């Protein structure tokens, strides 16, 4: 067995929670080793991206852009396909049908350097204090973590507080903001004009907060891969920090198997040979599925069943009353333009989170698929002229309490650990979204949008990978629950710092809070 030596603190995983925890430990003077599988973008694609980034975007050819932009294959019956980056699906672990079995769920495992931050939507939002009051940690406990995460990802925000801040105060100051498309500007103007009426309907609309750097080139490739990496990625932060921080070490190409006492054992991916590493403390940030696997193997069990919370999700096409003919040619970012928070007790006791997007190239792909399914390709030029400038989409998320729990089963077999995911009954989720659609129609129309609810796609549990709460923090932890430091009593040298330990998942975006909590645990642990 190869001995990798000893370390003070070891972080497993290089996604947002892993680097936030590592940053906290480094700030407290600890030496940190990150152990990671660390799959990276294919070398030939990386060279193409580098070449594109050195050129003025106005000089790019369609051929250059198309070589890195994968068209999404839409069908009427299928869910939206997984987002790739520069035509590559490297962020996603290729599913092994023997070791990873899903029944009516859509969870993914990432083994990428940077985790799923390599393909995320860049949406940033804190949880409201009222919605985590039952947690063993408060918003005040998370404030320093939110501030640290904001310094890392440098998110946008309006210069002045807006309707979103009335309910979800932005925990960082203004440094820069993103530009809206013409469609987005009009929607925001109407939202401001009708703010009082919308509030009476239980609706608040404001500008989105995005992990988008101030140097965004606005080339419109956010959904297929930005050659300038303007959207925050954890792997970019890691690479930059490794160059200047001598107390940080990165060990890639290593799969962690288990942690027992002060010893971590794993496998070298290239050779299959085992390795071990000793440390004082371990911080588990491999994502809910990866972290749960490591816990299962560390406990030495034959079988383990866990609940897995998720955000119920729906994607709905939007038809704008006004036709923005120039929308397909407009150069802006293609992330969500606006956030819309909805309070309807008949739908949920917690606010429903909506992300409104205006035109992007994937909408054209979806229209093409629709026309092809009805053999109407001949009318495509007319449809594109009179329809594309009216189209957008909204992604809607419910609190995890509204969806039931995915059942996650780990089983030890002669061939290795098997993970089985089983879906909860989805009847209630469909009913909830039906009520949401009926309740929000008036608010959408007030700002000049007709939602095409008859075309909505309700995602399978796990869609979007907003999952967690399999080892939830609790005031008085029960079996397989963690304390406020993400610790299980049977694994005293391990802190779980990713979404696995969130007690539940309010509907708003989760990455910012995951990073804040990971930073909090890392910072407090370093002081112990």
Kindly summarize this structure in a few lines.
The chain is α+β, with helices and mostly antiparallel strands and 528 residues long. The chain is built from 12 helices and 19 strands. Strands 1, 2, 5, 6, 7, 8 and 19 form a 7-stranded mixed β-sheet that branches. Strands 4, 10, 11, 12, 13, 16 and 17 form a 7-stranded antiparallel β-sheet that branches. It has a 5-stranded mixed β-sheet with strand order 3-15-14-9-18, with helices on one face.
Name the average pLDDT. 92
Largest sheet: 7 strands, mixed
Runs in which pLDDT lies below 50 for 5 or more consecutive residues are: none
Number of helices: 12
Q: Can you identify the CATH superfamily of the largest domain?
A: FAD/NAD(P)-binding domain
Global Rg: 23 Å
- Tell me the number of strands: 19
CATH architecture of the largest domain: 3-Layer(bba) Sandwich
Query: Total domains, how many?
Result: 2
Structural class call reads alpha+beta
Give the CATH level 1 class of the largest domain: Alpha Beta
End-to-end gap = 32 Å
- Assign the CATH topology of the largest domain: FAD/NAD(P)-binding domain
Instruction: Note the overall shape.
Output: globular
Q: What fraction of residues sit in β-strands?
A: 15-25%
**Can you give the helix content as a percent range?**
25-40%
């Amino acid at each position: 067995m190869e001995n990798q030596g000893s370390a003070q603190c070891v972080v497993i995983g290089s996604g947002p929670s892993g680097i936030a925890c590592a940053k906290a430990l480094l700030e407290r003077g600890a030496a940190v080793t990150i152990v990671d599988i660390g799959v990276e973008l294919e070398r030939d694609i990386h060279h193409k991206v580098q070449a594109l980034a050195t050129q003025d975007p106005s000089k790019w050819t369609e051929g250059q852009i198309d070589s890195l932009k994968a068209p999404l294959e839409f069908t009427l019956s299928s869910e939206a396909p997984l987002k790739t980056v520069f035509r590559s699906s490297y962020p996603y672990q290729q599913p092994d049908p023997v070791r990873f079995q899903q029944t009516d769920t859509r969870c993914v495992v990432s083994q990428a350097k940077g985790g799923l931050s390599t393909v995320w939507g860049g949406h940033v939002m804190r949880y409201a204090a009222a919605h985590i009051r039952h947690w063993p940690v408060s918003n005040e406990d998370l404030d320093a973590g939110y501030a640290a995460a904001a310094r890392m990802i440098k998110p946008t925000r309006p210069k002045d507080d807006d309707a979103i801040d009335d309910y979800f105060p932005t925990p960082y100051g203004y440094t820069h903001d993103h530009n809206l498309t013409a469609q987005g500007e009009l929607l925001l103007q109407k939202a401001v004009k009708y703010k009082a009426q919308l509030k009476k309907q239980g609706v608040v609309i404001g500008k989105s907060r995005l992990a988008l750097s101030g140097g965004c080139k606005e080339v419109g490739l956010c959904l297929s891969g930005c050659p300038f990496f303007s959207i925050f990625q954890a792997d970019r932060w890691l690479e930059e920090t490794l160059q200047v921080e001598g107390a940080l070490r990165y060990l890639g190409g290593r799969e962690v198997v288990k942690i027992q006492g002060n010893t971590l054992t794993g496998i070298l991916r290239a050779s299959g040979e085992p390795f071990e590493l000793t440390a004082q403390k371990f911080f588990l940030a491999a994502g809910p599925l990866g972290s749960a696997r490591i816990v299962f193997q560390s406990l030495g069990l034959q079988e383990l069943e866990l609940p897995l919370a998720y955000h119920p999700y729906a994607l709905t096409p939007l038809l704008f009353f006004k036709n923005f003919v120039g929308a397909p040619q407009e150069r802006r970012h293609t992330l969500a333009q606006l956030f819309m928070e909805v309070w309807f007790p008949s739908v949920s006791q917690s606010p429903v989170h909506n992300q409104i997007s205006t035109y992007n190239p994937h909408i054209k792909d979806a229209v093409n698929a629709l026309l092809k399914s009805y053999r109407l390709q001949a009318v495509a030029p007319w449809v594109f002229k009179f329809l594309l400038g009216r189209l957008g989409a909204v992604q809607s998320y419910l609190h995890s309490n509204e969806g039931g729990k995915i059942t996650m089963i780990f089983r030890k077999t002669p061939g290795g650990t098997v993970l089985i995911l089983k879906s909860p009954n989805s009847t209630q989720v469909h009913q909830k979204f039906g009520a949401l659609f009926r309740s929000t129609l008036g608010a959408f129309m007030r700002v000049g949008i007709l939602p095409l609810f008859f075309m909505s796609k309700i995602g399978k549990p796990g869609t979007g990978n907003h999952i967690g709460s399999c080892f939830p923090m609790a005031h008085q932890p029960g079996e397989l629950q963690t304390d406020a430091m993400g610790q299980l009593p049977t694994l005293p040298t391990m802190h779980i710092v990713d979404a696995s330990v969130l007690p539940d998942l309010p509907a708003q975006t989760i990455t910012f809070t995951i990073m804040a909590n990971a930073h909090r645990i890392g910072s407090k642990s370093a002081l112990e």
